Amino acid sequence: MPIVGSESLRLSVCEKWEKVWTKRALMGLVLGQFVSLLITSTGFSSSELARRGVNAPTSQSFLNYLLLAIFYGAFVIRRKRPLQVL
């Protein structure tokens, strides 16, 4: 037995879903996953280097910070609006 008003309920749910998944929200999700990948790779590479007897904490994180600076720098340069201080 169909639910009364189910078509309008489905449309409103679809409309709300489309409002949530905007380009800005997806970009935030992608950037968050990228930062998470960098953090994970830092932990993995640090533990692997420590297991092999290397003790160089700055060198272990340098590549990740370099990649983050390049990616974030390109994002900031590409922005059309100036950065705002809260």
UniProtKB/TrEMBL annotation:
Molecular function GO labels: transmembrane transporter activity
Alphabetized Pfam families for the sequence: SLC35F
UniProt superkingdom: Eukaryota
Membrane-spanning residues: 25-46, 58-77
GO annotation, cellular component aspect: membrane
Membrane topology annotation: Multi-pass membrane protein
Predominant location category: membrane
UniProt keyword annotations, A-Z: Membrane, Transmembrane, Transmembrane helix, Transport
Annotated localization: Membrane
Similarity remark: Belongs to the SLC35F solute transporter family.
The protein's name in its UniProt record: Uncharacterized protein
